[in-house]
């Protein structure tokens, strides 16, 4: 997906960038503009030679290319791969060189090469502003950057592992189910929901529960306030605020206010937990016990929310949409949930289903839901046209016979695999059976699959994301009958089209689509 990706990194980036407005930044602003303008004119009047040994450089105004890259990323990349006929092409974002890559060799290098920086790559979303190599006149060498990247990401991932430890997840499952059930109760016995609002709210609640503390997660007004600030940040990640973060735009102001609001809110709850008489097993307490200071805990909580909400919410919404249009597949998924209930819960109990489901061991969710697993995988595959980013820190990186300059940014769009006939015949067809995960003829189970990342940076939250999606699906499919409807409540004629160019919420294009439901079980 544009995955962690835009979300975690732009999210974290926004928290890092409380930069004061000083003459230094005015100067930086003017010089960046000048460099950008000169670069644009140079590229336009003196296009590069495009000889066979060099990476093909796009012609035209670099500002237009940069604009397309941020606003129409999918179309921009694929139209240029088609137009140029090359596996690699380059363009400029401000004064940075960006290399778009496709093909098997490029993919393997992109995900596995040690000297590609993950964190530096995502700084492209801030126009490379920050401590990028050239912005300090090469003050930082590769080893410094690598060391910093390793320390911060290793620490973040270690903490995440601790929070997402199996035992802790098993304990938190009943509370997560209560959260889902409480949100669903607000919907009533029948009605219509906008999945891209209501399911996202649900995922937001669950993520806050996982990543913070009870005092926050059980206060609906605070969770709502936090959600409002979070979406403000997401929506204000505009081209100007990402590319020119020093520019005093309204988006920048809103971003800073929302970012400060979120940090203050989480800091407050960290303080509450630091003063608590009895520690508990909530994430904030686990981090306090681990010796983490307040800023690191705030960073962790918000980082986890940014990494988790958009992707998990998006997949939960789209799974419901795809199943809404594929009845046979929906029935198979419902049957799997019913089997699970019959096998692991007390069927003669009068307890509501969410409480009964809470008693199923975590291994059930992970290992005994192959149908749901392939539905999620297929949804991820079809939606998975995100663009992971990297920065090259190596002197002599060769890809497909060409040299990538040190300091160049690199982008690889996952559709190169996920929507590629060679790996997935009829790639736009929703067909979870293509992942015949247990069969002998499991060719597509072995095709490259990048939706959870691969190589050096696989998704550290995959297990919790899958668990949350399965829990939502299980409860929704068991409790409700539903159909997809349009704005006027009439059955939707076709599955909504995915807008592959959006970096954030991946809402459908065109007419909005709703779920009309009727409760059939408690
Ligand atoms: C459906 C939900 C999710 C999807 C599809 C997803 C996808 C991805 C992908 C594709 C990457 C690799 C990006 C790259 O190579 O540039 C990644 C990395 C990562 N994800 Fe997720 N993610 C999801 C949910 C989560 C959640 C819930 C968390 C945290 C609780 C999380 C934490 C991370 C982290 C920390 C990394 C970076 C790993 C590293 O630096 O090595 N993700 N994710």
From TrEMBL:
GO terms for molecular function: heme binding; iron ion binding; monooxygenase activity; oxidoreductase activity, acting on paired donors, with incorporation or reduction of molecular oxygen. The keyword Hydrolase does not apply. Belongs to the cytochrome P450 family. PANTHER family: 24-HYDROXYCHOLESTEROL 7-ALPHA-HYDROXYLASE, CYTOCHROME P450 FAMILY 7. Its cofactor is heme. Heme binds at residue 459. This is Cytochrome P450. Keywords: Heme, Iron, Membrane, Metal-binding, Transmembrane, Transmembrane helix. It comes from Piloderma croceum (strain F 1598). The keyword Hydrolase does not apply. InterPro entries: CYP450_sterol_14alpha_dmase (IPR050529), Cyt_P450 (IPR001128), Cyt_P450_E_grp-IV (IPR002403), Cyt_P450_sf (IPR036396). It comes from the Eukaryota. The chain crosses the membrane at residues 24-45, 300-325. CDD domains: cytochrome_P450 (cd00302).
């Amino acid at each position: 997906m544009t995955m962690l990706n835009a979300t975690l990194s732009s999210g974290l980036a926004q928290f890092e960038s409380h930069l004061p407005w000083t003459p230094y930044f005015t100067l930086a602003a003017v010089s960046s503009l000048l460099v950008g303008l000169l670069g644009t004119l140079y590229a336009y009047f003196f296009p590069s030679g495009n000889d066979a040994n060099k990476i093909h450089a796009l012609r035209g105004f670099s500002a237009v290319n940069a604009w397309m890259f941020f606003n129409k990323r999918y179309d921009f990349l694929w139209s240029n791969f088609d137009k140029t006929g090359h596996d690699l092409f380059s363009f400029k974002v401000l004064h940075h060189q960006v290399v778009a890559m496709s093909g098997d060799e490029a993919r393997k290098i992109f995900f596995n090469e040690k000297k590609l920086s993950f964190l530096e790559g995502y700084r492209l979303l801030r126009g490379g502003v920050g401590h990028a190599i050239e912005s300090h006149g090469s003050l930082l060498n590769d080893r410094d950057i690598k060391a910093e990247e390793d320390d911060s990401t290793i620490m973040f991932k270690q903490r995440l592992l601790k929070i997402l430890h199996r035992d802790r997840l098993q304990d938190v499952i009943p509370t997560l189910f209560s959260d889902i059930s409480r949100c669903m109760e607000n919907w009533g016995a029948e009605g219509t929901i906008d999945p891209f609002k209501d399911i996202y709210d649900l995922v937001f609640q669950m993520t806050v529960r996982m990543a913070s503390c009870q005092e926050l997660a059980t206060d609906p007004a605070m969770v709502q306030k936090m959600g409002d600030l979070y979406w403000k940040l997401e929506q204000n990640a505009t081209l100007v605020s990402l590319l020119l973060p020093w520019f005093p735009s309204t988006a920048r102001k809103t971003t800073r206010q929302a970012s400060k609001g979120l940090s203050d809110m989480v800091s407050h709850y960290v303080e509450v937990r630091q003063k608590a008489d009895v520690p508990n097993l909530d994430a904030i307490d686990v981090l306090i016990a681990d010796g983490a200071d307040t800023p690191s805990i705030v960073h962790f909580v918000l980082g986890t929310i940014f990494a988790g909400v958009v992707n998990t919410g998006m997949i939960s919404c789209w799974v419901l949409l795809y199943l809404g249009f594929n009845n046979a597949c929906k029935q198979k998924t419902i049957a799997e949930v019913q089997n699970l209930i019959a096998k692991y819960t007390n069927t003669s109990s009068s307890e509501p289903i969410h409480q009964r489901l809470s008693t199923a061991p975590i291994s059930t969710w992970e290992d005994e839901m192959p149908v749901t697993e392939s539905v999620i995988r297929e949804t991820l595959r079809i939606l998975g046209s995100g663009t992971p980013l990297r920065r090259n820190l190596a002197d002599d990186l060769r890809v497909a016979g060409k040299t990538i300059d040190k300091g160049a940014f690199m982008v690889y769009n996952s559709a190169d695999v996920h929507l590629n006939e060679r790996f997935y015949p009829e790639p736009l067809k929703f067909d979870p059976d293509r992942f015949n995960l247990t069969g002998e003829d499991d060719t597509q189970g072995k095709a490259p699959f990048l939706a959870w990342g691969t190589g050096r940076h696989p998704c550290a939250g995959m297990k919790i994301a899958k668990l949350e999606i399965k829990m939502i699906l299980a409860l929704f499919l068991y409790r409700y009958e539903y159909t997809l409807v349009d704005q006027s409540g009439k059955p939707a004629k076709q599955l909504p089209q995915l807008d592959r160019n959006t970096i954030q919420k991946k809402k459908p294009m065109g007419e909005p689509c709703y779920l009309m439901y009727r409760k059939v079980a408690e």
